[in-house]
Amino acid sequence: MSERYEAGMSVRRKVLGDAHVDRAEAAKTEFDAPFQQLITEGAWGTVWAGNGITLRERSMLTLALLAATGNFDEIPMHIRATVRTGASREDVVEAFQHVAIYAGVPRANHALKLAKQTYAEMDEE
């Protein structure tokens, strides 16, 4: 694999945790392997591995962008990742407040609902 892939896999494991990445890798097939390589190199090996901002800031941006664009499926995964990125629950609330003003209250409301559910699950674990 490429150097960017290796860097991406390292950051992906740091942010999402080994258990999550191991499950994803075990589920990978020939069909989705090119896509998995793309996101590992592009998202994780380029964007998340950059030095310009912290993992905490990237976490907050990612959550806000997911909510703002209505891509809710990955919000629980990224809420769980805040434990490793350093984004606090207060940071997440602030990010979703920005979503409410700049992208719409319904999207922010749904993102907050998902965050509350995920934090509740995390508190029980």
From TrEMBL:
What is the name of the protein in this document?
4-carboxymuconolactone decarboxylase
Q: Which Gene Ontology molecular function entries are recorded, alphabetically?
A: peroxiredoxin activity
Name all Carboxymuconolactone decarboxylase-like domain ranges: 35-116
In which organism is this protein found?
A: Tropicimonas isoalkanivorans
